[in-house]
Every structure is written in C-alpha cells, then in structure tokens.
Amino acid sequence: TEKTISELVDAVNGTPDSISRDAGKKVKLRNHANGFCTSGVFKPNPQVTETLAIPFFTQSNIDVLARFSLGGTNPQSSDKTAGRFMSLKLNGDTESLHFVTSNAEVFFASNLDDFFTFQTKVKQGNEGKQWLIDNKPDAKAFFEYIKKLPPTSSYADNRYFGVNSFMFTSNNGETVAGRWIFEPVNGVIAASAAEFAQKPDHFLQQELTDRIATAPATWDLYVQLADKDDKVNDPTIVWPASRQRQLIGQVIINGQHDDAKATLECDKGIFNPLQLPKGISASADPILNARSAAYIESFIRRN
Ligand code: HEM
C-alpha cells in the first residue's frame, strides 16, 4: 500500500496518531530543526552552456540563500553526530534553483513504503534499528555508510550530495541523468576523536559564522553523469566515483546578505528539491517525487 504524504510526514516527525499529530503541530515540529540560515553567491562555470541547455547558468552572479542543518526534529540535538545537511536557494533574475543535500551519498530507502518503515523503526531505539538491519538491506547499507562517515568540526568541511537523480537537457537535444555533488574547495576534513570530544554540544553555527567573517566557505558544484546502465531512479544505489563529472560552478558562502529580510525570515519558508530552472527536470525516482509535497505538508503544519 502506498503511503500518503501525511503519513510520511507523521513518520518523519514521530507523530503516528491524530493526537500526537496535533501536539506536533502545536510545537511546530519539523525535520532538520537544528539549523540556521546564511547567504552568499553562486558563480556558474561559463563553459556549462556550451554543453547543457540551461539558460539559468548564463548569469554570472546568482544570489544564494543557504540553510545548514542536522537531521531530526529536535532543535537542540547535539552537533556531535555525523550527519550534515546543506540547503540552497539560487535566486536568479527570472528563475530559481533549490538544492536540498546531505553529506551522505546514499539513501536508506528506494520507495515510500521502505521510507515509512525506516522512519517508524528508527524511532523505536535499538530494537527497531536491529529489525531494519535484519530485514532491510538498504537500511543496513545506509547504517554501514554512516558508521564510516567522519565527524567534522565545520559545515564547510563536508561534501554534499543531492542523492536523487535529475535529468539535464544538452545542447544536442539529448537528456542525460545526473546527480549533484558539492566538493569543498579545501577538501573534506575529518575531525579527530580528541578534537571532537572537547567540543560543546553546539558549535557548528558559531564556527561557520566566525569562519565566513574572515574567508568564505566555498564548494565546486559538479553534475555526476550516469553511464547508460546506471540505476537512475534509485537513491540507494551509489554510482562509481569514476563517473564523468561536469563542473557547474562555485558556491561561495560569505554572509553578504545575512541582514536581509529573506535571510532573517528564511526559516519561515521551505527549500523545494523540485524547484528547477528550464533544462533541468526531475527523474522518475519515487523518493524525489514525494519530497516537495512532504515539505509543503510540513510547512503547513508548522505555520
Ligand atoms: C520521501 C523522502 C523524504 C521525505 C518524506 C522527507 C521529509 C522531509 C520533511 C517533512 C522535511 C521538513 C520540511 C520543512 O518543514 O521545511 C524535510 C527536510 C529536509 N530534508 Fe527531507 N525528506 C525526504 C528525503 C530526503 C532526502 C533524499 C534528503 C537528502 C538529500 C533530504 C534532506 C532534507 C533536508 C536537508 C531538509 C531540511 C531542509 C531545510 O534546510 O529547511 N530529505 N524532509
């Protein structure tokens, strides 16, 4: 049975019945509650439009609104976990492009039923987690991936992945599947266990604010292109790192618009993974195609 969008949001929020759902609405529960917004600029690689028919990238400087977050509905959750997330709104002259990304390249479910089951079981503690390991290979593979993910002392020290696939129109009229990868210009920097142990529970926001006051945090954005046999519509399947990549541009987080209304009120909006400019469209991945509706449902509940 296909889960409804409301059921998916309930599973994410841990509100399985109408009483807990109403309670969740009252406290404005949302996923990725521990987060903050900042700003910067995106500079497209001028060569992109030689191969890809995406007029959006002919602009030279595109305003960026960014939100960095941790997973989960607890706004006070500890920063000493491995998950790091980056959401971006690129607001162009006539179009916009949103990215909603994770430092994990792989997802834990390939369909909405498995997504629902995962969200429900992880909230049942060790027993639920063990059940997933025993019964859901995608969840098991995800846990194994997360175990190896290095903890980082900065939101700037991570790669970020779009995870789901999108379709890109090329100048010769073909459509090619690709996935977003943000590569930190200074490389991925793993924190040592000792360094991490000395930190307070909350340090990531202050760290990024201090950092960008001196020098911006920058990432090169690539599209990783699928080979003809790669599974496009399944976010549990990582493509080989050797796949061809095309440089799309650079995102520069510098805080330049942090005093603007849009940045200050950023938590009142949503990042929509299906907000795409001409020349980019959604793949048929069922996870991707449920996300916008779930984010809007969550937005309605928390307003
Ligand atoms: C069917 C699959 C998914 C569902 C149902 C779902 C659900 C949600 C919900 C309900 C929110 C809160 C939205 C809000 O109130 O603004 C959210 C936020 C978020 N999700 Fe998902 N999600 C899904 C897949 C993914 C995937 C694959 C990724 C990673 C690439 C992801 C990354 C994020 C991030 C980073 C946010 C925070 C956005 C922000 O900064 O405001 N989600 N998700």
From TrEMBL:
Instruction: For this UniProt record, give its keywords in alphabetical order, as a comma-separated list.
Output: Heme, Iron, Metal-binding, Oxidoreductase, Peroxidase, Signal
Q: Where is the Catalase core domain?
A: 10-303
Q: What class of enzyme is it?
A: oxidoreductase
Molecular functions per Gene Ontology:
peroxidase activity
**Record has Metal-binding as a keyword:** yes
Question: Looking at the keywords, is Metal-binding present?
Answer: yes
Q: Which Gene3D superfamilies match?
A: 1.20.1280.120, Catalase core domain
Q: Which InterPro entries match?
A: Catalase, Catalase_core, Catalase_sf, Catalase_SrpA-type_pred
Pfam families under this entry? Catalase
- Needed cofactors: heme
Enzyme Commission number(s): 1.11.1.-
Family assignment? Belongs to the catalase family.
| Function text | Has an organic peroxide-dependent peroxidase activity.
UniProt name for this protein = Catalase-related peroxidase
The organism encoding this protein is Shewanella aestuarii
